[in-house]
Known about the structure:
Elements: E1 3-7, H1 10-22, E2 27-31, E3 45-49, H2 57-73, E4 78-82, H3 95-105, E5 111-114, E6 122-125, E7 128-131, E8 134-135, H4 154-159, E9 166-169, H5 171-175, H6 178-190, E10 195-198, H7 203-212, E11 218-221, H8 230-235, E12 254-259, H9 264-275, E13 279-282, H10 285-289, H11 295-304, E14 311-314, H12 319-329, H13 331-351, E15 354-360, H14 362-372, E16 376-384, E17 387-392, E18 399-403, H15 412-415
Parallel strand pairs: 1-3, 1-4, 2-3, 4-11, 5-10, 5-11, 9-10, 12-14, 12-15, 13-14, 15-18
Antiparallel strand pairs: 2-16, 6-7, 7-8, 16-17, 17-18
Helix pairs in contact: 2-3, 6-7, 11-13, 12-13, 13-14
The chain binds adenosine-5'-diphosphate and ligand LB5GJZVW.
Amino acid sequence: MLIGAVADDITGATDLCLMLSREGMKTLQVIGVPEEGADFGDADAVVVALKSRTIPAEEAVRASRAAAGKLLAAGAEQLLFKYCSTFDSTDDGNIGPVADALQDLTGGELTIACPSFPAAGRTVYKGHLFVGDRLLSESSLKDHPLTPMHDPDLVRVLQRQTRRPVGLIDWPVIARGEDAIRAAFAQQQAAGKRILVVDTLSDADLHAIGAACDGMKLVTGGSGIAMGLPENFRKRNKLPVRKAMTRMMAPVGRRVVLAGSCSAATRVQIEVARNDASALLRLDISAVADGSQSAAEIADWVISQDKDRLPLVYSSASPQELQSIQAAMGRHESGALVEQTLAEVAERLKQKGFTRFLIAGGETSGAVINALGVKTLSIGPEIDPGVPWTRSLSGPDIVLALKSGNFGAPDFFLKAWAQLDPEGSDARD
Ligand SMILES: Nc1ncnc2c1ncn2[C@@H]1O[C@H](COP(=O)(O)OP(=O)(O)O)[C@@H](O)[C@H]1O
Ligand SMILES: O=C(O)[C@@H](O)C(=O)COP(=O)(O)O
């Protein structure tokens, strides 16, 4: 194993898997902390998907340390901690505490914090995170249901989460390339800094930063940082050149979209599907809470739809609607009830022979995957930046597209299916 990664949510993990496999690494996604003696086959990279972004910091640290320990024991040469490209976290964590714990596990050496993903519009300049052309705090992430982001200055944000000194390598240094970046690492380390936010404006910057991280025991960031890391192993003849996949075999069966993301991109995708005459049903959380809507009824509705129409169940709400739901029911309580309901719908549909699932939302995907009993995923073709098709390797034979809330083009829900073999296939990849 060349790279062992711990991701703080499931869509983040598939995003990272896609990046690593696009760069030629045979990549396996494992759901949850691997079991003792787990067999990772001949994977060049293993990404462990946790659901640790919004749980209490001590639990996130415990799970991340356990997962990282398994990857290091299996021979991982470099450890990667994957979090969101929009740095989703609270002042209590969990990025800082987990990075600290993994740094301890890997000998306490200097590490970086590189959330940038320019292909998805996330860049960092003077330590400030931009989403498209807006500062993070002025983007739709300020209204995230679980981790509203109000401060765009990542040095400040991260410093609130860790006692270790946080530094910054700004863009003029990054633009001078690998050697300059490496020299800046050494200078900052000598100045007592332990974790460095790195400015990044382009894929070229990511390649240069990745090259400078050759040999760094622990790297932290979004999937973008994985763009430049595989080349370090290829240079040493540890990694062959592989072609990216463009289509995927999928088991015979019906399809469904389940959206528990309230992100701006997902809400647009829902409207595009509505205008295309897909069959839409809203999960009304107040109705679920008072018993007038249930997972069983929602699943029956999906099953009863004409097979030629795409069925889409969504709980997604506008920031204003969300505010009043959360005021009435509580932020975590309402979120958990939505997740639990969509997870039960998925489980019921699986029982009825549905094999093709498109799930929108990271936390939502985590809940659905757990309910479906999926343990490992192989990575298929890219639908849009950050979102591949995946196929379950053990347990139920199904394909899944796990879409991060803010990823994907407006027609994502409609176009994703074109990459699956319409006839179906009984053989797993
Ligand atoms: N109508 C709603 N009311 C309250 N919470 C909701 C509603 N719809 C979705 N949620 C919750 O919002 C959270 C969205 O997070 P997530 O699934 O990670 O989406 P994203 O990828 O957009 O961040 C989930 O916990 C989900 O259950
Ligand atoms: O880095 C990213 O933006 C994604 O990989 C990711 O982690 C997004 O999280 P969700 O929006 O909660 O799916």
